[in-house]
Amino acid sequence: MSFETISKRGLVILGCGRMGGAILQGLLSGGLPAHSVHVIDPHPSDWLKSTNVQLNGTLPDSPAVVLVAVKPQMMADALPQLEAMAKGDTLFLTVAAGITMAGYERMLGDQTRLVRAMPNTPAAIGRGVTAIVGNPNATPEDLETADALMQGVGQVVRLEAEDQMDAVIGVSGSGPAYVFHLIEAMAAAGEAEGLSADLALQLAKATVGGAGQLAEDSPETPATLRENVTSPGGTTAAALEVLMDPETGLRPLMRRAVAANIARNRELGK
Ligand SMILES: NC(=O)C1=CN([C@@H]2O[C@H](COP(=O)(O)OP(=O)(O)OC[C@H]3O[C@@H](n4cnc5c(N)ncnc54)[C@H](O)[C@@H]3O)[C@@H](O)[C@H]2O)C=CC1
Ligand SMILES: O=C(O)[C@@H]1CCC=N1
């Protein structure tokens, strides 16, 4: 399905907060005409009001795509109003955590053409990474459409099975929050060692941003890049001894954090 078909038949966005807004921004700057977008959101942001999208108005009967971007807790209230569209020729593309294909099929009917997508907030600057997977009703063309829409905000990867989605949410969907916390923790350590708050934050942000870019761009593995910083017997080695402790280091801590994420995701799906 081309952008032309989407602009002709319309795109409905259910919930246009941080994530829906980031995706919409990517699509509008990619050339999707604003008048072809219909947003349902009881609390539209000022930015959303400043676009020329159709806000809380009449919806097309059979839009090309419905993008679902409400919180999982709102889903049961918000989604059933669109049930008729799921009986027709509309693709449902959802970015919500927690809710499984089976959950959507219970709300919309088991004929629904559905793609689950898990983006992350660097989408707001076109640097997101989104994993997608379709239900058995989703055609290869539907997956192409979802892929093309989500490429508006960064890279897209395809999953082999829905059960990989939990780990994706645990790693990349929520992952930016872990990285932001790493920035906070590095800055706090710098401050505790006598740097001003501003300087410590500038150093931490630039280090995480630069190292992230280097890890993405370099042909070397992260392990080699780490070793390149580490002189034998030097200062980095002393810090890594703490961070790489098999019992108390970052690896077991991250393992626990991702497991907690997945457990919560499964609770939300109930
Ligand atoms: N923020 C993130 O990092 C990511 C979020 N997601 C998923 O995106 C979805 C949205 O999350 P955010 O954008 O962060 O939340 P948000 O709170 O920024 O946006 C949700 C929007 O839904 C609107 N809304 C509330 N009730 C509604 C209703 N009955 N009908 C229509 N709209 C309604 C709210 O006014 C708000 O604008 C969630 O399901 C979340 O799991 C997925 C990946 C990453
Ligand atoms: O915290 C959440 O539930 C959502 C899902 C991925 C990122 N934020």
From TrEMBL:
Chain spans, region Disordered: 212-232
Q: Kindly list the positions annotated as binding NADPH.
A: 56
Q: What class of enzyme is it?
A: oxidoreductase
One of the entry's Gene Ontology molecular-function terms is: pyrroline-5-carboxylate reductase activity
Give any Pfam family that matches: F420_oxidored
Report the catalytic activity: L-proline + NAD(+) = (S)-1-pyrroline-5-carboxylate + NADH + 2 H(+); L-proline + NADP(+) = (S)-1-pyrroline-5-carboxylate + NADPH + 2 H(+)
Keyword entries, A-Z: Amino-acid biosynthesis, Cytoplasm, NADP, Oxidoreductase, Proline biosynthesis
Query: Some GO term, biological process aspect, for this entry: which one?
Result: L-proline biosynthetic process
**Which pathway features in its UniProt record?**
Amino-acid biosynthesis; L-proline biosynthesis; L-proline from L-glutamate 5-semialdehyde: step 1/1
- Could you tell me where this protein is found in the cell? Cytoplasm
Name a GO CC annotation attached to this entry: cytoplasm
- Which residues does the record give as NADP(+) binding sites? 14-19, 69-72
Instruction: Report the principal subcellular site.
Output: cytoplasm
Q: Which SUPFAM superfamilies match?
A: 6-phosphogluconate dehydrogenase C-terminal domain-like (SSF48179), NAD(P)-binding Rossmann-fold domains (SSF51735)
EC number annotated for this UniProt entry: 1.5.1.2
Pyrroline-5-carboxylate reductase dimerisation domain span: 162-268
Q: Where is the Pyrroline-5-carboxylate reductase catalytic N-terminal domain?
A: 12-96
The record's family statement is:
Belongs to the pyrroline-5-carboxylate reductase family.
Q: Provide the function of this protein.
A: Catalyzes the reduction of 1-pyrroline-5-carboxylate (PCA) to L-proline.
Q: Which NCBIfam families match?
A: proC
Identification of the protein by name? Pyrroline-5-carboxylate reductase
Taxonomic lineage: Bacteria, Pseudomonadati, Pseudomonadota, Alphaproteobacteria, Rhodobacterales
